[in-house]
Amino acid sequence: MSQGTVTPGTPAPAAAKAPPPKLRKPIESGVPDPMQYMHPIMRKNYGNWAWHERPRPGVLRHVAKSGDEIFTVRAGTQRQMDVGTIRKLCDIADTYGEGHVRFTTRSNIEYMVGSFEKVPKLIEVLTKEGFPVGGTGNSVSMISHTQGWLHCDIPGTDASGVVKSLMDMLHKEFIQEDMPNRVRITTSCCQINCGGQGDISINVQYTKPPKIDHEKVGNVCERPSVVARCPVAAIRPAMVNGKPSLEVDEKKCVCCGACYPPCPPMQINSAESTKLAIWVGGKHSNARSKPTFHKLVVANLPNNPPRWPEVEEVVRKILYAYKEDAKDWERMGEWIDRIGWPQFFEKTGLAFTKHHLDTWVGARHTMNMSAHVRF
Amino acid sequence: MSDAKKDDVVKATTAKTRTPNRPTPKLDELESGPWPSFVTGLKRLRDSEQNGAMMNDLLGQLEHSYTERLGYWKGGTVSVFGYGGGIIPRFSEVADKFPESKEFHTLRVMPPAGFHYDTNVLRKMCDIWERHGSGLIAFHGQSGDIMFQGTTTAGCQKAFDEFNEIGFDLGGAGPALRTSMSCVGHARCEMSNYDEARALRTILNDNVGEIHRPALPYKFKFKFSGCPNDCVNAIHRADFAVIGTWRDDMKVDQEEVKAYVEQVGRKYVIDHVIAMCPTRALSLNDDNTLEVENKSCVRCMHCINVMHKALAPGDDKGASIMIGGKRSLKVGDLMGTMIVPFMKLETDEDYAKLKAFARQVIDFFAENALEHERIGETLDRIGLPAFIDALGIQPDPNMVKHPRTSSYVRTDDFTDEAEKYFARKGAHKDGSAKEAAE
């Protein structure tokens, strides 16, 4: 273990011969003040904006009560950026913008400038350098993105690859505003669902109970807390081959993977059994209908790197059925509310199965408790 | 800087003697297509002097994952002096094959509220991370952190010291107060109902100890959206969601309404604005002006979103607070639940009140939640009546979709509770109107 690093649980070294390294005390400065980095026009008109419009996809014009204006050019990034990419984005801001940028919650970069004259050149340069300009209004914005194989310790797939593959397909829907309403797509590399709720969500779905390495459980896992972690009480302590371990009641197990993070020897992933599922109709905005969670539509898609073509195909079907049929301003879930689930499955050509019938706590509230039916 | 120079020498030497480029046939396929490619970026780092050796093996391990369809990182314990969290340790399980990236830890660093940067500070971050890390940065992680991905155990302290010197601090990890996010809000949006950045910094910076030294039963997240469009997804993802709203009538510029009707036609406005109002609070008059029944309006934002030049939130602004949102693990997804329908957020006193309430909720969580229980689960376990009672909040019909449907409840103090309600409302029992004094 290196100098300058404190590892709880590591005994303090015995009186060393060399003088101990000087440890720098952290400045607990917390969240930085954004004012020091903010574009001066935004700072000046902070809290005093009047209205906005979108002169073209990817461009916003905000007008302040003072009459000041600011133009924003929004462009897509790969989120996982090397310093070369970030420096290139900075060069563009210094040469063609005004040196101030921000990122959206979906990892798009925004360039703010005080006059519209700078906008066309910014669009041209960003496009030429491979950063698509768009993601505003009723477009498909960048997919919210989790970590995956690149860095996570429990992933079933790689978000970066899934997102890159899908955004290649969705590029044209990013650079234009041609959807009924905004479309928010999310990914998650395990069933914890870090990627959140989306109009369309592409999430890992485990299909088999964990495979247990009984040699390791006793040494690696705090067994009572693993038992407590199981949402369906399917895990119990056991002695296996004379060693303390854990066993899983596979009839009860819902294959959620909750035991895997606290106990890595309970391996939930495998090349074959880790699958992808697609969910629709999640929405966090309160506009029109209340916020909703996404609902399962397809499971058991293969985890097929590097481009996950089966996932792409289903996303395409759902997205274009929505685009064709939804009324202006209906989000995915609101469109389905209007046409009903029977028509949704018909229009998308997807199957409705027993696995769509919820069995979790509160499942009855998801059932149709009325005589409203559609044919 | 002598340390940094020493690092440079070590890295350059390693780069010269490193193994040939790892083959990446699968990842190569992710370099084509119109969207920016993370693989091309990883290769740029591989080909650089400073980060080459580590990133060559990182690419090798990632290709290995793409081939075997499995992840190969495990966690551990790494932190910086004085803190207990903020670093996500990653040790490779296939370090025998890819030794140069055997340690690939991430620093979670809290961004300026609203994700504002200038190029000067971004370039400084790049320089620091090139010196002490892999050169790979994500803007931003799902909790809102700047994620400096990939350094050795030794690199964590060096990188942190330099980030800290330029005004940045580590975010949360583990059972701690987590890094927060706020929307662009006051900085550039006319829908904003309070100063989101101020609210975020007021609460988070009042509780830095809870961020840096994990001691809560489980994670706790705040998120701040300036209006019910909730652009940072607070209601799904935050234990404590602060969502802007207003109490008085929304603003209507009738001339702009007429201009909009003129532009898109009466049918479009009726079908897409009037008929889409969730509480039927809108009506289009024969002279193309808009009638709003403000008492029925639920502040959903739809009509304002569509006609944003004509319509706007009112003047009596503040926020609603929803508690208990979270993702799946382990009881299933929970949506934030309305706990404080309106808190005025304007004066210093208002923000002090918000800060005190946030602290009260964190303390309640610390004292009452079970291990590995999110506050939404605590709320479910003890029930909303006990929850609000513990926080000293009075029941309000805005907290429910509808009153209870089950008769299994002991109601022998109902009359007393009703008296309290009338006393709070300052209204007479016979219902004659007398608005609350507050």
Structure description:
The complex is a heterodimer of chains A (375) and B (438). Chain A is an alpha+beta fold and 375 residues long. Chain A has helices spanning 40-44, 83-95, 119-128, 159-174, 214-220, 223-229, 309-325, 332-339, 341-348; strands at 49-56, 59-64, 69-75, 80-82, 100-103, 109-113, 185-188, 200-206, 211-212, 235-240, 243-248, 266-267, 274-280, 295-302. Mean pLDDT of chain A is 94; it is low at 1-12. In chain B, strands 8-9-10-15-16 form a five-stranded mixed β-sheet. Chain B has a four-stranded antiparallel β-sheet with strand order 2-4-7-6. In chain B, strands 1-3 form a two-stranded antiparallel sheet. The relative contact order of chain B is 0.08. Chain B has three domains: 1-171, Alpha-Beta Plaits (2-Layer Sandwich), CATH 3.30.70; 181-247 and 318-393, 2-Layer Sandwich (Sulfite Reductase Hemoprotein, domain 1); 251-312, 2-Layer Sandwich (Alpha-Beta Plaits). By secondary structure, chain B is an alpha+beta fold. The chains are: A alpha+beta (375), B alpha+beta (438). Chains A and B meet through strand 1, strand 4, helix 2, strand 5 and helix 4 of A and helix 3, helix 4, strand 1, strand 5 and helix 5 of B.
Q: Describe the biggest sheet of chain B?
A: 5 strands, mixed
Overall average residue pLDDT of chain A: 94
Assigned CATH architecture of the largest domain in chain B: 2-Layer Sandwich
The share of residues in helices of chain A is: 10-25%
Provide the domain count of chain B.
3
Order of helices and strands of chain A: HEEEEHEEHHEEEHHEEEEEHHH
**What distance separates the N and C termini of chain A?**
67 Å
Number of H/I helices of chain A:
9
Question: Fraction of residues of chain B in helices?
Answer: 25-40%
What assembly state would you assign to the polypeptide chains in this entry?
heterodimer
| CA-based shape of chain B | globular
Order of strands, main sheet of chain B, comes to: 8-9-10-15-16
The pair of chains with the biggest contact is: A-B, 125 and 139 residues
Given helix and strand content, the structural type of chain A is: alpha+beta
Regions of chain A with pLDDT < 50 over 5+ consecutive residues?
1-12
Give the uncertain stretches of chain B in residue-range form.
431-438
Mean pLDDT of chain B: 93
Structural class of chain B: alpha+beta
